[in-house]
C-alpha cells in the first residue's frame, strides 16, 4: 500500500441555507502521514471526515488527492483510493465476517465472485492482521461492538486504500485492542486521517493534529504546536495541566473543570 497526498483547501459545508457547520478549513497531509482531528462534541469532526470520503460535497473549497479533486473522479475511483471506518456501521448483520471483509475488494471490481486468488490473499491478510481468523465464519450480528469494529477495519484494509479515514477508531475497544489499533495506524504506509477524543493518544500517534472548534480550525500543526493548554482550554472549556510522567518522562495532559 502507498499513501496519497491529501490537500484540503478552504472547505466549508452546510446542510442548508444559513446553517454553516464547517467553514474555511485548510490543511495538507503528506503521503503516509497520520493526521488526528480533535475537538469537542459537535465541533465538526465527523462532518469534515464526510467531506474527505466523498459523502458530502463541500459547499466551498476543494479536497484533492495527489492533486486531483475527488469530485472530478468517479465514485468508484474514489472508493479505490479512500476507505472509511465509521462510528455508525451499515447493518449487514447476516453476513459472515469473511463476507464483510470481502466487500472491501468490490471497488476494485476484480470479480471476487469468481474467487480471484489475489483477492483471497488480500482478504486472508486483512483477517489475520486484525486477529479475526477464529471469527471469520461468524455472522456480524453475533459479534461484540469491539469485534465488529475490528471487522470494519479489516474491510477497510482489504480495500487497499491510499487514504484511510477513521472516525474514533478506538471506540468500543478494550485496552489491548486500542493499543493494537494504534500500532496498526503507526505501521501502515498509507495516509490516515483519524478523529480522536483521547488527546494524549493523539499526541503519541499523529504526525499532525487539526483542532476544530465550532466548525473552524483552531490550530493545525504538530501535536506539540497544537495540543497546548491554551488551545485545549478554548476548544473544550476545561482547565489543562501539562505534567511529566515520572517513569517515562513523557508529557501527559490532565483535564479539570
Ligand atoms: N446533516 C446535518 N444537519 C444538521 N445538523 C448537522 C448535520 N450533520 C451534523 N450536524 C450538526 O453539526 C454539528 C457537528 O457535528 P459532527 O458530527 O461533525 O460533530 P463531531 O465533532 O463529530 O461531534 P462528536 O464528537 O459528538 O462525534 C453538530 O451540532 C451536529 O448536530
Outline the fold blueprint.
Layout: E1 6-13, E2 22-29, E3 34-38, H1 45-52, E4 60-65, E5 68-69, H2 75-81, E6 82-85, H3 97-103, H4 117-129, H5 145-158, E7 163-167, H6 175-187, E8 191-195, H7 199-205, E9 208-213, E10 216-221, H8 223-226, H9 229-236, E11 239-244, E12 251-256
Organism: Roseibium porphyridii
GO molecular function, one term: ATP binding
Pfam families: ABC_tran
Architecture overview:
By secondary structure, this protein is an alpha/beta fold. It has a single domain (6-256), classed as 3-Layer(aba) Sandwich (Rossmann fold), CATH 3.40.50.300. Helices cover 32% and strands 26% of the residues. It contains 9 helices and 12 strands. A 6-stranded mixed sheet has the order 6-7-8-3-9-10, with helices on both faces. A hairpin with an 8-residue loop joins strand 1 and strand 2. Helix 4 (117-129) packs antiparallel against helix 5 (145-158). The mean pLDDT is 92. Bound molecules: adenosine-5'-triphosphate (ATP). Residues 6-239 form the ABC transporter domain. Pfam families: ABC_tran (PF00005). InterPro entries: AAA+_ATPase, ABC_transporter-like_ATP-bd, ABC_transporter-like_CS, P-loop_NTPase. This is ABC transporter ATP-binding protein. Belongs to the ABC transporter superfamily.
Amino acid at each position: 500500500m502507498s499513501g496519497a497526498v491529501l490537500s484540503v483547501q478552504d472547505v466549508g459545508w452546510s446542510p442548508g441555507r444559513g446553517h454553516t457547520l464547517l467553514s474555511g478549513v485548510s490543511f495538507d497531509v503528506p503521503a503516509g502521514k497520520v493526521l488526528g482531528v480533535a475537538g469537542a462534541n459537535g465541533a465538526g469532526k465527523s462532518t469534515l471526515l464526510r467531506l474527505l470520503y466523498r459523502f458530502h460535497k463541500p459547499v466551498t473549497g476543494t479536497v484533492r488527492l495527489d492533486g486531483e479533486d475527488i469530485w472530478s473522479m468517479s465514485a468508484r475511483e474514489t472508493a479505490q483510493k479512500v476507505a472509511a471506518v465509521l462510528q455508525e456501521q451499515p447493518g449487514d448483520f447476516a453476513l459472515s465476517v469473511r463476507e464483510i471483509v470481502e466487500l472491501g475488494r468490490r471497488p476494485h471490481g476484480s470479480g471476487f465472485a469468481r474467487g480471484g486468488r489475489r483477492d483471497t490473499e488480500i482478504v486472508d491478510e486483512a483477517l489475520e492482521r486484525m486477529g479475526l481468523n477464529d471469527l471469520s465464519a461468524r455472522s456480524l450480528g453475533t459479534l461484540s461492538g469491539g469485534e465488529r469494529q475490528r471487522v470494519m477495519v479489516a474491510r477497510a484494509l482489504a480495500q487497499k486504500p491510499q487514504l484511510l479515514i477513521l472516525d474514533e477508531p478506538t471506540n468500543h475497544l478494550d485496552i489491548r485492542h486500542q493499543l493494537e489499533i494504534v500500532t496498526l495506524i503507526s505501521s501502515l504506509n498509507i495516509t490516515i486521517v483519524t478523529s480522536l477524543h483521547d488527546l494524549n493518544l493523539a499526541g503519541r500517534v499523529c504526525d499532525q493534529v487539526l483542532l476544530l472548534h465550532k466548525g473552524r480550525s483552531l490550530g493545525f500543526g504538530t501535536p506539540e504546536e497544537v495540543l497546548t493548554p491554551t488551545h485545549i482550554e478554548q476548544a473544550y472549556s476545561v482547565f489543562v495541566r501539562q505534567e511529566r510522567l515520572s517513569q517515562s518522562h513523557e508529557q501527559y495532559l490532565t483535564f479539570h473543570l
